[in-house]
Write a structure and sequence with these properties.
The complex is a heterodimer of chains A (232) and B (402). Chain A is of the alpha/beta class. Chain A has one domain: Rossmann fold, CATH 3.40.50.300. Helix content of chain A is 37%, strand content 28%. Chain A has helices spanning 46-53, 76-86, 102-113, 117-130, 146-158, 176-191, 203-208, 226-231, and strands spanning 2-15, 18-31, 35-39, 61-66, 69-70, 87-90, 164-168, 195-199, 211-216, 219-223. The radius of gyration of chain A is 18 Å and the shape is globular. Chain B has 402 residues and is α+β, with helices and mostly antiparallel strands. Chain B has 2 domains: 3-52 and 267-400, no CATH class; 104-223, no CATH class. Helix content of chain B is 55%, strand content 17%. Chain B contains 13 helices and 10 strands. Chain B has helices spanning 3-16, 18-55, 75-79, 88-93, 131-134, 161-168, 210-217, 235-249, 261-304, 306-314, 319-355, 365-392, 395-400; strands at 60-65, 100-115, 118-127, 139-142, 156-159, 177-180, 183-191, 205-209, 224-229, 256-260. In chain B, strands 2-3-8-5-7-6 form a 6-stranded mixed beta barrel. Chain B is elongated. The chains are: A alpha/beta (232), B alpha+beta (402). The complex binds adenosine-5'-diphosphate (ADP) and magnesium ion. Adenosine-5'-diphosphate binds at residues 13, 15, 20, 22, 40, 42-48 of chain A.
Chain lengths: 232, 402
């Protein structure tokens, strides 16, 4: 079953009096449980694509069906609801709330969703365990290493048990070793059934994905899954 | 998002920026404290004056010689420039009036008092027996003036506490002869000390029969006639009766002024009440300023935390949740500021009372409620705009800012 179906997507930005076509004529289908790497030169539209998939942005034209539902017509609050329950984000710069502890940062999506405190506690405790952060629960982000921060961010992205995890250059601010750890972690999640879409500059990391997309000037220039889909 | 979580989130956010938070809390608390202290001052002044007036006596109607400017132009006054004397007989005639319970004519002047070689200047009040009860003076020792013919006063005196102390020290004074002016008078009573009040300081006063005083000062006119009406309700009627009687005795000329303590009191009460309100209004402007400061602080907070707002949106926060979180923060800033200001203000009023014990500097309830209410309302009102701005941010743009 397709998790994501994009058809004839156009996303344009107005920069002064020139129009930037960040995405153009984009058709894409991603099935549930896939592991996809999005690559391509800087400015090719990778982040724009990810924001669109994450319902943070809307296309100017084209249709986007998420889990079979047309999401281009939803209201902002409906989109927030879908993000809350179905999508987890991992950012290059972690985006942790500096004044909240690791545990509180992980709990934040549940807090926002109004999940009762006892359940939050229980799920955060398990997540801290799973992500090797058990003795870092009360640490503030500035007391954590880069790898720990990104683990907190990943724990936060998975705490609502989403169907889709979107990671925009998740290892961009990490050294080789911790970056590998983070990728392993994301791959474990994918192995557990979560659809994983990772934007990366790193050829090696891109190669580890089961499917590679290469963007260029807002086009989908290469899709390793094209043949597989065609064959099916 | 649950209400408790919104409050906790707002609290942590406020605590996360101590400089900004303390600044707006301070501004709000200064505004509230200003209202509390200034209204305490204003209302204290009002209470002080009202208290002083009440201590003059109860249900007083007072006659002054001469026509005061109030009451408009009277052709009769235009002809006779010098007013007729207000005499002891005038005062005596008022005793027949139904509304008057007590009457005391009053003549005043200064003289010298001496005893045992000690001499000092004194204020002399010529009065009658009812003067002391009308003015609520209390005796420490002895009796007041005797109840006798007003025109033939006995050679007696009631002396103030300080006079007593200076002339007699610890020795007994009752029954002793003192010299006042050119008279030898027997001390029959000593007043209790009361200190400085509105009107006269009785501690340095000598009270003697009115006829003696008039002879001593070689004058027929009285300084005042004090009348105690039988009740508060009888005051207006008594005033009418007094005015009519004196007009009749003075051949149809209204050449005296009759005032009631009530009217004077009401005027002062109103005047000082208005003053308090005005002062409260001025202080309330500082509350509005504090409100605007809270708004600016919150606008800065929205700008500073744009990245965080983008994150919250990415994590599924609705616009309403974000609005409420920022509104709660603004409300918290002003609530804490208001509370702190209230405490500061009460502390200030307390200090005022410590330094000026006679001055009842308590902030009136209405002012406290209005100050706290205005603080919270302005905080919320000025918090709305930043909160809406935060909720309207575009998530992608917001996330890019960091
Ligand atoms: N908000 C925006 N306003 C104007 N131009 C934008 C905006 N976001 C992205 N772009 C433009 O769209 C193109 C694609 O950007 P982006 O998706 O960030 O590329 P990538 O992530 O592949 O580096 C770039 O040319 C970029 O300048
Ligand atoms: Mg990018």
């Amino acid at each position: 079953m397709p998790l994501i179906e994009l058809a004839a997507i156009e996303r344009r930005f107005l920069l002064g009096d020139t129009t930037v076509r960040a995405l153009t004529g984009l058709d894409l289908r991603i099935d549930a449980g896939e592991y996809v790497a999005v690559m391509g030169p800087s400015g090719s539209g990778k982040s724009t694509l990810l924001n669109l998939l994450g319902l943070l942005d809307r296309p100017n034209e084209g249709s986007y069906r998420l889990e079979g539902r047309d999401v281009t017509t939803l209201s902002p609050d409906e989109l927030a609801g879908v993000r809350s329950r179905r999508i987890g984000f991992v950012f290059q710069s972690f985006h942790l709330v500096p004044r909240l502890s690791a545990a509180e940062n992980i709990a934040l999506p549940m807090t926002l969703a109004g999940i009762p405190l006892p359940e939050r506690r229980q799920r955060v405790a398990r997540a801290l365990q799973d992500f090797g952060l058990a003795n870092r629960a009360d640490h503030k982000p500035d007391q954590l290493s880069g790898g720990q921060r990104q683990r907190v961010a990943i724990a936060r992205a998975t705490i609502m048990q989403p169907a889709l995890i979107l990671a925009d250059e998740p290892t961009g601010n990490l050294d080789r070793h911790t970056g590998d750890e983070v990728v392993n972690l994301l791959e474990t999640l994918n192995a557990g059934g979560v659809t994983l879409i990772v934007v990366t500059h790193d050829q090696g990391m891109g190669a580890r994905a089961r499917r590679q997309l290469v963007m260029e000037d807002g086009h989908l220039q290469y899709d390793s899954g094209q043949n597989a889909h065609a064959r099916r | 998002m649950r209400a408790a979580d919104i409050l906790r989130f707002a609290r942590d956010a406020a605590a996360g920026y101590p400089m900004r938070t303390s600044l707006s809390v301070l501004a709000m608390s200064i505004g509230v404290a200003a209202v509390v202290v200034l209204t305490a001052l204003g209302d204290g002044a009002r209470r002080y004056v009202v208290g002083q007036f009440s201590s003059l006596g109860t249900n007083l109607v007072i006659v002054l010689p001469g026509r005061s400017g109030t009451g408009g132009f009277n052709p009769a006054n235009a002809i006779t420039s010098t007013p007729r004397d207000l005499t002891v007989d005038d005062a005596a005639s008022l005793r027949r009036l139904p509304g008057a319970r007590r009457i005391a004519p009053l003549a005043v002047g200064t003289s010298e008092i001496s005893y045992g070689g000690k001499l000092r200047e004194v204020m002399v009040a010529g009065a009658t027996a009812e003067f002391i009860p009308i003015r609520n003076f209390e005796l420490a020792q002895g009796l007041g003036l005797p109840d006798e013919d007003w025109n033939r006063g006995s050679p007696v005196a009631v002396i103030g506490a300080k006079i007593h102390e200076e002339l007699f020290g610890n020795a007994p004074a009752i029954g002793r002869l003192v010299r006042v002016g050119d008279r030898r008078l027997r001390v029959v009573g000593v007043l209790k000390p009361i200190g400085q009040g509105l009107g006269m300081n009785t501690d340095e006063l000598v009270i003697i029969p009115v006829s003696l005083a008039q002879a001593m000062f070689d004058s027929n006119t009285l300084f005042r006639i004090m009348i105690e009406a039988s009740s508060r309700e009888a005051i207006p009627a008594t005033k009418e009766q007094v005015t009519a009687m004196l007009k009749q005795r003075h051949r149809g000329e209204e050449d005296v002024t009759v005032i009631t303590q009530d009217a004077v009191l009401a005027t002062f009460d109103k005047l000082l009440g208005a003053l308090t309100l005005g002062v409260a209004g001025i202080a309330a402007i500082s509350l509005a300023v504090a409100g605007i400061l809270v708004m600016n602080v919150m606008l800065v907070a929205v700008t500073q935390r744009t990245g965080e707002i983008g994150l919250l949106k990415a994590l599924g926060a609705s616009a309403r949740t974000i609005r409420l979180a920022f509104l709660a923060e603004a409300a918290m800033l002003s609530a804490v500021g208001a509370l702190l200001g209230y405490l500061l203000g009460q502390l200030g009023a307390f200090a005022l009372r410590q330094f000026f014990p006679v001055f009842p500097a308590y902030p009136p309830d209405w002012a406290v409620i209005a100050a706290l209410g205005t603080a919270l309302a302005t905080g919320l009102l000025f918090g709305v705009m930043p909160a809406r701005r935060a909720a309207r941010l575009d998530p992608v743009q917001a996330l890019m800012k960091r």
